[in-house]
Amino acid sequence: MVQANSASAGVVIVAAGRGTRMGTKESKQYLMLQDKPIVIHTLEVFDRHPLITEIVLVTGEQDVERARAWIDEYGITTSIKVIPGGAERQHSVYQGLLQMSSTWVLVHDGVRPFVTEEQVTSCYEAAIAHGASVLAVPVKDTVKQVDEQGWVTATPDRRSLWAIQTPQAFCRSDLMQAHEQAERDGFVGTDDSMLVERLGVSVRVVEGAYSNIKITTPDDLDYAEFIRGHKEAKGRE
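Predicted structure:
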């Protein structure tokens, strides 16, 4: 196993979506969470992380300049490139990868501001040890497989089901190859792990936390305010 402190990593933070489920004119990643935009909270986690040496923020073309202005305003010091994304999340990630030089890369959602330094480190170390990793949590609810007519067709064993989060960590060359193969095949996956799985790369699951939520709906934003307030209260204890 390569020791985690023997290398460094880059991270692609994806924040190019419009977030129609939020029901606001403003993109979800730029909504305010207490004192600053959601995406800035996310960037700060990686800015503070000792293993992260480069960050690429992929955003909408119309948002590049204000994202750069916020990075300066909030004092983020890690070298960050802000670039416009593509039509799909998958295309945005690939554009970010093209801007990176790190051997190991993480991909993270811009609207997951509660990931911790420890979770990032664990995901990175698992990728170093096993080749690829994803942060995830065990599914708490019973899940039903349902057909197009609305009938239940199967009930998978909940013990084998995990809800996948980010970050996800990979060898950059593997992830580049996976994206390029998907492009050739006309395949669009729901996450980056899905793309490397198509190459036959085994992906290690790293247990995360239920608080590492993806803020996509108004209810999520309310819960995010609660989580943020709870973390601040614990910090004052």
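Summary: The chain is about 35% helix and 25% strand.
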